[in-house]
Amino acid sequence: MKQVVIENPVLNSPFEVPERHFKFDDDGITNEIVDARRGSAYFIPIVKPKMKGKQLRFDTEWTEERIRPNEDINRIRAKVDQWREGKHVGITKTSRMLLDYWMNSERKKKLFFCQIEAVGTAIYITEVAAKYGDAWIENTLRHANEDATPLLFRIAFKMATGSGKTVVMAMLIAWQALNKLANPQDGRFSDAFLIVTPGITIRDRLRVLLPNAPQNYYRERDVLPSELMQELEKAKIIITNYHSFLLREHTQAARLTKQIITQGGREASPFKETPDQMVRRACREPGNKKNIVVLNDEAHHCYRRRAGAVEEEKLKGEERKEADKRDEAARVWISGLEAVKAKIGIKAVHDLSATPFFLRGSGYDEGKLFPWVVSDFSLIDAIESGIVKVLGVPVADDALQTGQPTYRDLWLRISDMSDAANALRARPAAERSQ
């Protein structure tokens, strides 16, 4: 693959529709600029190394045949573009107020175009599409969900890491909640939310989505005018990690007692919560609220292995263990959401992820986007818009002062310095200060 030098990768404003991109050819990215927005596409992964005779052979060919357009996303994008250029017809007074506020050119804290596009796509699908001949969008999404999660209606937003997914979550909450509070009879909206994360670290970081939090994003990122904050505080918001969906034991008993009582193929243990009890524990904050909206953060963790799928190549060892671990986590996550829907109702699930791809062992084509993705702003789009920085990647070690690459004996080169540093740290503080 030839080496391409791009002095300045930033082609577009982060606050405007991308209008240019670098072209890809059979050798990869080029420094040729195309005066148009890059279409949404995915790359077919390079196949695993194969043995040819006794020699290991790699398929390193990069061709345009490996690029597959995401046709549904591109069609939806075109419809949303047309709607935006037509001044957002067909939406509620509240939605129009929010879009005008977010897109105001006089804002001090401007929102990225990709953030407004993601939320705008959700607004278009919910409020506009069916009225203007685009019911095919919802039908396509429902068909996509029937295969993977038939009990849930999911739409996903693909956004590069660093492009502001948390702000998009705040915007989605504000749009849904304020519309519901303005018109409680409108069944398209909800003012109760369940935010699900893959772990406690992300869960705690997302407390900025609580309107009464000291540094909430509605104020910090100017998602809402200050006079609407009191209204938003009426919304019910739960933030949890998917582990809260695990059925907990509620009765203590000896192991032998449990074995005796549960033997004989009982489907449910009398010592554990039922799914209904789990939902009452995990979702007690909304009270009597029904038909809530779920926001899945890092949603690439949340899908089941395809039912009845046969692996083309059996996974072994660590790959098998990793796939099984993902399957179990996804089972808990999705089963928990299904229990929530059965108990209190779920209006819609909004997935947010930088990498909403199927992985090996999932039963789906590896590297393919979730078919319910409706908006795509990739890493290279974010780089070309100046939203995220380009990582410096070492491509060569041309020193060769010792006859071999430095990284081959890196530890030997730094161990003397490390020993000296450790010895200094071991000395008393008074001596170290001298």
Features of this protein?
434 residues, alpha/beta, Rossmann fold, 2 domains, six-stranded parallel β-sheet, two-stranded antiparallel ribbon, 12 strands
What's the architecture of the largest domain in CATH terms? 3-Layer(aba) Sandwich
Task: Please tally the helical runs, counting DSSP H or I stretches of 4 or more residues.
Answer: 14
Helix content: 25-40%
| Class by alpha and beta content | alpha/beta
- Characterize the overall form: globular
Integer average pLDDT: 82
Q: How many structural domains does the protein architecture include?
A: 2
User: Given this structure, which CATH class of the largest domain is correct?
Assistant: Alpha Beta
- Cα(first) to Cα(last) distance is 54 Å
CATH fold-type name of the largest domain: Rossmann fold
Summarize the helix and strand pattern as letters: EEEEEEHHHHEHEHHHEHHEHEEHHH
Low-pLDDT windows of residues: 49-62, 429-434
Strand neighbour order, sheet with most strands: 9-8-10-11-7-12
What is the structure about, briefly put?
By secondary structure, the chain is of the alpha/beta class.
SSE inventory with pairings:
Layout: E1 21-25, E2 28-34, E3 41-43, E4 50-52, E5 55-57, E6 67-69, H1 71-85, H2 93-103, H3 113-128, H4 136-148, E7 154-159, H5 165-182, E8 192-197, H6 200-205, H7 217-220, H8 229-232, E9 236-241, H9 255-262, H10 275-282, E10 292-297, H11 317-343, E11 346-353, E12 373-377, H12 379-384, H13 410-426, H14 429-432
Parallel strand pairs: 7-11, 7-12, 8-9, 8-10, 10-11
Antiparallel strand pairs: 1-2, 3-6, 4-5
Helix pairs in contact: 1-3, 3-5, 10-11
